[in-house]
Amino acid sequence: MSWRKSLKGRISLNEPLSKHTAFKIGGPAEFFIEPEGPGDIKTLLRISKKKRLPFFIIGAGSNLLVSDKGIKGMVVRLSAPYFRKLSRENESVYAASGIMLNKLLAFAKERGLSGAEFLAGIPGTVGGALAMNAGVTRPAARSIGDLVKEVKVMDREGNIKALKKKDIKFGYRESSLSEYLILSSVLILKKQDKRKIEEKMRSYLERRKSTQELMKPSAGCIFKNPRSGSAGRLIDLCGMKGKRAGGAQVSRKHANFILNSGRAKAKDVLKLMDSIIEKVEAEFNIHLEPEIKIWR
Ligand SMILES: Cc1cc2nc3c(=O)[nH]c(=O)nc-3n(C[C@H](O)[C@H](O)[C@H](O)COP(=O)(O)OP(=O)(O)OC[C@H]3O[C@@H](n4cnc5c(N)ncnc54)[C@H](O)[C@@H]3O)c2cc1C
């Protein structure tokens, strides 16, 4: 454990990951580390290789299901001030990867910069949103990748690179950035009247409130929509709304949400996911793919 002394950031041992996931599920991380800056991350990557400690990066944990047994190795969260910087130059916004999306949106609105309103109400950090290419499918498909000019990343060897948009592949709830540690981004927005921005944000938030169950812990949509349409609709047609496994329950409002309705374990969620996959496959011959990331 002498390597801890070479770090400037914070480190906790056996930190319950249920405290760091939107699902409120997950066993302890052997090492939960909040590096001070890129120098610390480089050190951690070197140590993780040398000591064969698995290395995970967590944002706000809003798209994660973490094993009840927890995680052996390092779980790294970019929450130090270095990773929470926001600034603007004309219509470009610099957003470090640890900043929360709601902070980014408030910053843009205050400066009359439009384009990111569709992200309103999506929990998570800028880094997590870029890794997942977070966005909406209605009323029109928009995702954070549409706004990107450039992203600064670190590879697993500790080299820092600035990737232009043309060097990055953004797909439906995935991006080629997830192979890197995302450090910061430059997003392109457009000048607009503050009130118009506010109106757009409100309308996205209202749509979200009317369609999603937000009062109980969840990880948002569990499955990706298949090519043929909505995963939630298929799950609903299988009569799965309200179905339970232990403390996990399929939302009655949005069938693609699984809720932690009290003391749910990761194994409950996985059991429910398996029975949904089986039912949808048997009924429609469609195989649902998880949208959430599962750390076992
Ligand atoms: C109620 C609710 C509603 C939601 N609605 C939506 C929605 O409408 N649209 C949508 O797209 N998503 C939605 N989500 C899912 C989630 O909010 C997004 O995927 C979000 O972008 C995840 O960000 P995060 O910081 O929480 O990432 P995490 O959940 O912490 O991590 C997700 C993945 O990103 C990786 N990652 C995180 N940070 C970095 C980094 N700096 N560098 C490299 N990899 C990184 C992690 O390793 C992991 O693989 C919803 C979730 C909830 C709980």
How would you briefly describe this protein structure?
This protein has 296 residues and is an alpha+beta fold. A hairpin with a 2-residue loop joins strand 17 and strand 18 (248-250).
Present the secondary structure layout.
Layout: E1 10-16, E2 28-34, H1 38-50, E3 55-58, E4 64-66, E5 71-77, E6 86-89, E7 92-96, H2 101-110, E8 113-114, H3 126-132, E9 135-136, E10 142-143, E11 148-154, E12 160-164, E13 170-171, E14 174-175, E15 181-188, E16 190-191, H4 194-211, H5 231-237, E17 244-245, E18 248-250, E19 258-260, H6 266-284, E20 293-295
Parallel strand pairs: 2-5, 3-5, 4-20
Antiparallel strand pairs: 1-2, 6-7, 7-15, 8-16, 9-10, 11-12, 11-15, 13-14, 17-18, 18-19
The protein binds flavin-adenine dinucleotide.
CATH class of the largest domain: Alpha Beta
Distance between the amino and carboxyl termini: 24 Å
Largest sheet: 5 strands, antiparallel
Architecture of the largest domain, CATH level 2?
Answer: 2-Layer Sandwich
| Class derived from helix and strand content | alpha+beta
What is the percent of helical residues? 25-40%
